[in-house]
Automatic annotation (TrEMBL):
Signal peptide: 1-28
Stored Pfam families: Pkinase, WD40
GO-annotated molecular function: ATP binding; protein kinase activity
Domain (Protein kinase) ranges: 381-638
PROSITE patterns: PROTEIN_KINASE_ATP (PS00107), PROTEIN_KINASE_DOM (PS50011), PROTEIN_KINASE_ST (PS00108), WD_REPEATS_2 (PS50082), WD_REPEATS_REGION (PS50294)
Entry keyword set: ATP-binding, Nucleotide-binding, Repeat, Signal, WD repeat
Listed SUPFAM superfamilies: Protein kinase-like (PK-like) (SSF56112), WD40 repeat-like (SSF50978)
Sequence ranges of the WD repeats: 56-97, 98-139, 181-222, 223-264, 265-306
Residues reported to bind ATP: 409
Protein name according to UniProt: Protein kinase domain-containing protein
Lineage: Eukaryota, Sar, Alveolata, Dinophyceae, Suessiales
Length: 654
């Protein structure tokens, strides 16, 4: 940037946030003290489009970069004052300040599961911090000049950083250099991976964008359309587009299928410093030295709005991972001992005073992506019978659009931080998941829960599964006279379905760990044969690298490495599955009882699989796809008539 634009030695830092898209941008050169903005709590799904939510202060000099963590709960910023600051988006208060760098911090990036924060600096280093403790994990010193940009690969296994003429890629498992790309002829200013991780794009002062294949680290193409420095590059969420911002005052967009130019946006009057797509790809934001942030609709490439709150150069723009839904009002529901019902019309209008400010802060932290938002008017509560309850809240049955039975998961009438996190976590992970052996996520909505004192709550709508959980289902089977003949086949089929669903989760990029696999979190569809479905992703997370991680899950089913807070990965879920098999065979978690119940047939196969899953050394356990393959080739069994289990009242355990 041009330091001469700073007219005061006392530099305050400015981050302005606009709601609906939670778009964040920074003034690189704000020269007046700024205040923390408050947010009025209202009985609606979210603030008006692009209204300012907050202005954050704290840095003592220019801010170069801002980024949200993957769940939107944190915002990190890198500054000329040599620090990285982290803010909680629920309260917009500072969480920590990282002071390890000795020169300007030019770029910040979270890894895909939010467990790591990387920063690139003019001190020629990249530093990596664990977000659980905010302690330094690694310092990468391979660069010999300023580091301008850092980016994690979508599976978290690689970290790219750029400097003078180079792009360097590190393996995050060992923090060793994988490759250095030297194709640029001048400083490289920006780097980005595409969503599937197969491509890496870099923008340079040499006026080009270069694209590399990450499988071979060979150059795929060079885009030469810009006539000045390329300062920022970004892929859209489906990877079909690549946007670049340049000192030639333009934003250019390219189709990645042909590497041809789709459009050139010329609305800015000065250097374009940053570009960013929103989470669904429908918007593209750009920040420029001319001050205003411009937002474009990607369907027409027309300008949607210009945000003029900044008066000087905007160095970075970023969208939060969450979007508000389109509904402008919420319905009022009553939750009591008997279940959920629509409130009397006389209480449907609630004043601001009915809510604590923390309610809206919690809801804003979680957010609802527009695609998943369900209008409260589309929901019809079922009978008042509560089908399940637990420490989180209750589950009741309802109808979506008068046609689809759904399980409605309702939190306690007042959020607690632990329950809030688990609920938000389920929504974020469910967005990535679509599989026939995993409970379907229909969406979420905001409800005013008037159970004593009104509060605004985020409610989940999940697939209705009619057979209850696996624990209850097995109890029914064991009471059936034909259990040994048909019950074994039923149980085996459900476990096979679970292995299939877990194979899917472990093959996603990044990998999703369930971390609480147990009979209560396996639902059963009462078909012939029955169908198993995995549920409850409140404790789940994306797989991290070889770092110590929190102890999560249910003790009896927990892998030893999880219980001991050692680094863990997909093998932890495999161990839990082995414990589920033991419980299925014996009715208890007692391996010593297996010999009397699994002497032949299907349960003999389960016994063999369980033994391999329960290896103490996680490296000795099979992958889930190997477990599934083994279960699909069981020994021959006698064909018997299938008798469904007895019908009883269904209870759902949270």
């Amino acid at each position: 940037g041009n330091a001469s634009t700073a007219s005061s030695s006392r530099m305050a830092f400015q981050i302005l946030l606009w709601a609906l898209c939670a778009l964040v941008s920074v003034d690189a050169y704000a020269d007046v003290p700024l205040r923390q903005m408050s947010h009025a709590v209202a009985t609606q799904t979210g603030p008006e489009p692009f209204t300012e939510v907050a202005t954050l202060e704290g840095h003592t000099s220019w801010v170069f970069d801002v980024v949200f963590n993957p769940d939107g709960g944190l915002l990190a910023s890198g500054s000329f004052d040599m620090t990285v600051k982290v803010f909680a988006t629920s309260t917009w208060t500072e969480v920590t300040t990282l002071t390890e760098h000795t020169d300007w911090v030019r770029s910040v990036a979270f890894n895909p599961d939010g467990g790591l924060l990387a920063s690139g600096s003019f001190d020629k280093t990249v530093k990596v911090f664990a977000t659980s403790t905010w302690t330094e994990v690694a310092t990468l010193t391979e660069h010999t000049s300023f580091v301008y940009s850092v980016a994690f690969h979508p599976d978290g296994g690689l970290l790219a950083s750029v400097s003078y003429k180079t792009v360097t890629v590190f393996a995050t498992s060992t923090w060793t250099e994988v490759t250095t790309l030297t194709e640029h002829t001048d400083s490289v200013r920006s780097v980005a991976f595409n969503p599937d991780g197969g491509l890496l794009a870099s923008g340079s002062r040499d006026k080009t964008v270069k694209v590399f294949a990450t499988s071979t680290w060979t150059e795929v193409t060079t885009l030469t359309e810009h006539t000045d420095w390329v300062r920022s590059v970004a892929f859209n969420p489906d990877g079909g587009l690549l946007a670049s911002g340049s000192g030639d005052k333009t934003v250019k967009v390219f189709a990645t299928s042909t590497w041809t130019e789709v459009t050139t946006l010329t609305e800015h009057t000065s250097w374009v410093r940053s570009v960013a797509f929103n989470p669904d790809g429908g918007l593209l934001a750009s920040g420029s030295s001319d001050g205003p942030v411009k937002v474009f609709a990607t369907s027409t490439w027309t300008e949607v709005t210009t945000l003029t709150e900044h008066t000087v150069s905007v160095d970075s723009v970023a969208f939060s991972p969450d979007l508000w839904g389109p509904e402008s009002s919420v319905c009022v529901y009553v939750v009591d001992a008997s279940g959920l019902s629509v409130a009397d019309p006389s209480v449907e209008s609630c004043s601001e005073g009915a809510f604590q400010s923390s309610d809206m802060q919690h809801i804003m932290t979680i957010g609802i992506h527009e695609h998943w938002f369900i209008k409260p008017s589309d929901i019809t509560p079922g009978s008042k019978s509560i089908l399940g309850s637990g420490s989180f809240g209750i589950v009741v049955k309802g109808m979506l659009n008068h046609a689809t039975e759904v399980a409605i998961k309702i939190p306690k009438t007042r959020f607690q931080s632990r329950e809030e996190f688990q609920l938000a976590n389920e929504i974020r992970l469910f967005r990535h998941i679509r599989h026939s052996n995993i409970v379907l996520f229909h969406g979420a909505t905001l409800m005013v829960i008037n159970g004593g004192s009104p509060c605004l709550s985020l409610v989940l709508f999940l697939e209705w599964v009619d057979g209850g959980n696996f624990g209850e289902y097995m109890q029914q089977l064991r009471s059936n006279a034909v259990f040994e003949a048909d019950g074994h086949a039923f149980a085996y089929k459900i476990l096979l379905d679970v292995a299939r669903g877990m194979t899917y989760l472990h093959k996603l990029t990044p990998v999703i760990l369930h971390l609480d696999l147990k009979p209560a979190n396996i639902l059963v569809e009462k078909s012939v044969p029955p169908k198993g479905k995995i549920t409850d992703f409140g404790l789940s997370r994306f797989a991290r690298n070889s770092l110590p991680q929190p102890k999560v899950g249910t003790e009896k089913y927990m892998a030893p490495e999880v219980a001991q807070r050692k680094p863990y990965g997909p093998a932890a879920d495999v161990f839990s599955f082995g414990r589920v098999i033991i419980w299925t065979i014996t009715g208890e978690l007692c391996p010593e009882l297996i010999s009397s119940t699994s002497s032949k047939g299907l349960f003999q196969t389960l016994d063999e699989v369980a033994s391999s899953c329960l290896e103490e050394d996680s490296h000795m356990r099979p992958h889930f796809f190997q477990v599934y393959d083994r279960l699909t080739t069981p020994p021959p069994t006698t064909t018997t008539k299938i008798v469904p289990p007895l019908t009883t009242t269904t209870m759902i355990v949270l």
